[in-house]
Amino acid sequence: MLTTSNARPRPAGEKTWMPAGLRLLRPGQWTKSLLVLAAPFAGGVLSRDDVATRAVIAMVAFTLVAGAVYAANDVVDAESDRLHPAKRLRPVASGRISPRAALSVCAVCAVSGLALSAVLGWPTAAVVAGYAL
């Protein structure tokens, strides 16, 4: 495992192999993005034309924007999270990621997710942007 000289030790009780930057985006929550596939699946159109491709693109866009929201939330809530027995292990609250780095990740994910959703047209971009807000 590669480490940097300024890497902080893992807080006691943190039991994950996942790098802090990825944990910031809360991959455990990504399964919610599968709901994007629910409507075309239920409508029986997932196998038509490019519906599956467009649905997967929308799912990835939503996942990126959701990750941006999680990162921003962690910066805003860092002080109170430090006092919580489980949330204190989050990357920003534990000090493994600086607020500035978390906001950089937030910006990259938000811009990427919104740009990707715009590829699908303004209605999709509007829904994804609405979630971000």
What keywords describe this structure?
single chain; 6 helices
Report mean pLDDT, rounded to a whole number. Answer: 87
Shape label: elongated
Question: What fraction of the residues are assigned to beta strands by DSSP?
Answer: under 5%
- The sequence of SSEs as H and E is HHHHHH
| Contiguous uncertain segments of 5+ residues | 1-7
Tell me the major beta sheet. Answer: none
Q: Report Rg.
A: 17 Å
Helix content: 40-55%
- Count of discrete alpha- or pi-helical segments spanning 4 or more residues: 6
What is the multimeric organization of the chains shown? single chain
Q: How does this model look, in words?
A:
- With 133 residues, the chain is an all-alpha fold.
- 54% of the residues lie in helices and 0% in strands.
- The protein has helices at residues 20-24, 38-42, 51-76, 78-81, 99-119, 122-132.
- Helix 3 runs parallel beside helix 6 (122-132).
- It is elongated.
- Residues 1-7 have low confidence and may be disordered.
